Amino acid sequence: MKAIVYNGAWDIQLKEREEPVITAADEVIVEIKATGICGTDLSIISGEYNASPRVIIGHESAGIIVAKGSGVETCSVGQRVIIDPTFYCGYCENCRKGLRNHCLLKSSTEAGVSIDGTFTKYFKTTKQFIYPLNDNIPFEQGAMSEPLSCVLTAVKKLAVTPYMRTAILGGGPIGLLFYMALTQHGIQEGVVYEASRDRIKLIEENNVLSKNWKIEPSFIPQKNQYDLIIDTTGSLLEKSMQSIADGGKICMMGLRNNQQTINAREIADRSISIIGSIDSMDTFRHAVDLINKGSLGLEKIITNEYGLDDFTSAIKDLGCDMDTKVRSNHISSLKSVIRI
After folding, report:
1. CA separation for the pair 105, 257 (Å, rounded)
2. pLDDT digit string (tens) for 298-337?
3. Given the DSSP bridges, would you call strands 302-306 and 11-16 parallel, antiparallel or unpaired?
4. What is the dihedral of CA 37, 199, 133, 130, to 10 degrees?
5. What's the CA gap between 164 and 326, in Å, rounded?
6. Which residues contact 295 (CB under 8 A, 6 or more apart)?
7. Are 316 and 173 in contact (CB under 8 A)?
8. What pTM was computed for the model?
């Protein structure tokens, strides 16, 4: 089967790999129909995020079950399904503390990072990581369950209330999924700050935001401006501290390496909460249920589809240029999906 294989920074290739086979009773093989291109994939390709050499990348996926082990009774061959790619063992110290998103085996079990992922035709997993996808929901929307579940994990940690004055920093797929999740939790107005003019144009052309939400190109902090700030860029904590109200909450969701300086006394003196969040924790089923209802408007942000053979073009449209080895904000798609 063809697969997108990562060899090192700016070195990916379309290669032939062996198809997986069932070797254990609880295993399931899914024929991948759609895999979303994640910001993490782009960071792996550009060398900003570490992955194992020769691994098949990709992890946001939906497809059809084509084989299963003798102990799988919860799903059937031919069923349309969504894959939860975030493995957890259930018995390590972190799993037993309720931190399955920080499973101690994660460094060697992360699909598309340390083990083979889903930019390919077939993917093997186990029955506890499979969820049903309704017949009326396109596979590309089902593939959004993983990033949506990560967003919902953060929203749950933030304990949001409907009257929070809200800013989302970054209008990429994660920022837009935050917008959708926050509106589901009663926040009906806010501001999305996005530096890319290309992305702003796409958001406006696709009518992604409701009329009470605005999109702005520059985040210029003002005192006591917001009660809730979601930083999907991972690089705007200093500005967020200048803008957050007393008792406010700042969520750090981006995975950028950078150093920032804040006054630690201010966190205590102003009762500010700075909350980090990563991956999915007890929210995957919630994400699946929301997607299966078909009412989020995901079709507005999934703007481009490609085949495996067009992967280089697909990431270039997301600002990741293999020829120049440069990652930029010059984009022509909000969320892109590889269809197989």
Report:
1. 23
2. 999 999 999 999 999 999 999 999 999 999 989 999 999 9
3. unpaired
4. 40
5. 38
6. none
7. no
8. 0.95
